[in-house]
């Protein structure tokens, strides 16, 4: 007969139970031993594969108490085979099922063009609605100083602006430097156009082609890639390849997050 062996560990020394969380695709967790943080892309044979925002993959064993979710220790478990609600938005934020859009703030985020606005909406739209932030497009930034002056940003109405090709010495750089309001923030990415902020691998191409100076950049891209020279159709092809923040370059991700934080900061 097997003898019963009582557990003599004092209650205060026993580890506290932690939540078990299904390792659904898109769930963002951190492996504390390595500090690696990424989204779940695969779960099999007692392991989970994470992908960070730079596209790097790491495989970890699904051990008890093995991960951090929003700073809390959790145990990842294999997800059920049935359909599950998404746990995170396309931007990587925690999804809030049934959340209602907030009344629009006085503050705004301006982007250069319609393509920029559509990309921001696709990845950050859920977050922006919860925060009550409206994104508008300008059709260029040549008149940005007067646009900012007309908007009259203040502590309760902050203005964030996302600029294409914001590199030292460029025309865009000089325009951005002329905006001096403490309640307006102008940031940008280094790409000639927002198209380039989409990772080539997400579109099945090796890299974005270099277009000689003086040529229309978008038309040149279509020609170089063998796409029909219809920039509207090309953009829809590009946008359809974006499923989440993992399909975008970090130089854009950081700037959009910075603008959202700026516009939603307490007065």
Automatic annotation (TrEMBL):
Record-linked Pfam families: DUF3097_C, DUF3097_N
Domain DUF3097: 20-79, 108-264
Protein name from the UniProt record: DUF3097 domain-containing protein
InterPro entries membership: DUF3097_C, DUF3097_N
TM stretches of this protein: none
Residue span of region Disordered: 1-26
């Amino acid at each position: 007969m097997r003898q019963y062996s009582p557990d003599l560990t004092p209650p205060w020394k026993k580890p506290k139970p932690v939540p078990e969380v299904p390792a659904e695709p898109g769930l963002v967790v951190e492996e504390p031993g390595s500090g690696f943080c990424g989204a779940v892309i695969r779960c099999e044979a007692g392991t989970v594969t994470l992908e960070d925002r730079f596209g790097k993959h790491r495989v970890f064993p699904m051990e008890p108490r093995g991960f951090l979710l929003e700073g809390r220790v959790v145990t990842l478990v294999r997800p059920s085979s049935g359909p599950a609600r998404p746990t995170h938005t396309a931007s990587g934020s925690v999804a809030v099922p049934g959340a209602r859009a907030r009344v629009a703030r006085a503050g705004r985020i301006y982007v250069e063009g319609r393509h920029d606005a559509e990309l921001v909406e696709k990845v950050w739209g859920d977050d922006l609605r919860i925060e009550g932030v409206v994104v508008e497009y300008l059709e260029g930034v040549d008149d940005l100083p007067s646009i900012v002056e007309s908007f009259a940003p203040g502590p309760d109405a902050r203005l964030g602006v996302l600029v294409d090709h914001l590199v030292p010495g460029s025309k865009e750089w000089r325009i951005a430097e002329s905006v001096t309001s403490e309640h307006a923030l102008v940031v940008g990415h280094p790409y000639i156009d927002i198209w380039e902020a989409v990772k080539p691998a997400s579109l099945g191409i090796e890299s974005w082609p270099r277009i000689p100076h003086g040529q229309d950049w978008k038309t040149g891209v279509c020609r170089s890639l063998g796409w029909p020279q219809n920039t509207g159709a090309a953009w829809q092809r590009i946008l359809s390849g974006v499923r989440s923040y993992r399909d975008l370059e970090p130089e854009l991700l950081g700037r959009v997050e910075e603008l959202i934080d700026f516009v939603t900061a307490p007065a």
